[in-house]
Amino acid sequence: MQGRWINWTATVGAGALLLAIGGMIPALAMDRDDWRGDRDWRQSRDIARDRRDVREDVRDLRRDQQRLRDLQAERRHEIREGDWRAARYKDEQIDRLRRDMARDRQDIRRDVEDINRDRYDRRRWRDD
User: d(Cα 27, Cα 49) in Å, to the nearest integer?
Assistant: First the structure.
């Protein structure tokens, strides 16, 4: 009698194990296909890239500001010396540099907007 009881228990236990494994497979598949986890990771990477871009643009803008001060000082020196051709060339360099600085400011603004938008999207998707 005891042998039959052990066989019956083993059979029921093996069946329960197979049902548990069978029941876990869809849950594992859903977890693996969870697009929100992948989206969070991708957005974190995008935010980090945008922050790097902002830091690089700010560094570039600061270098340009220093270069602008230097060019303006050189232009004033050329005017004092009476070298009008060199002063005009400095004016053209200053104009180009100011346009470049305006582009850098636009890039910074755009990157900051991207960071803020990604943060907002990330919070919104997490709340779901």
Answer: 33
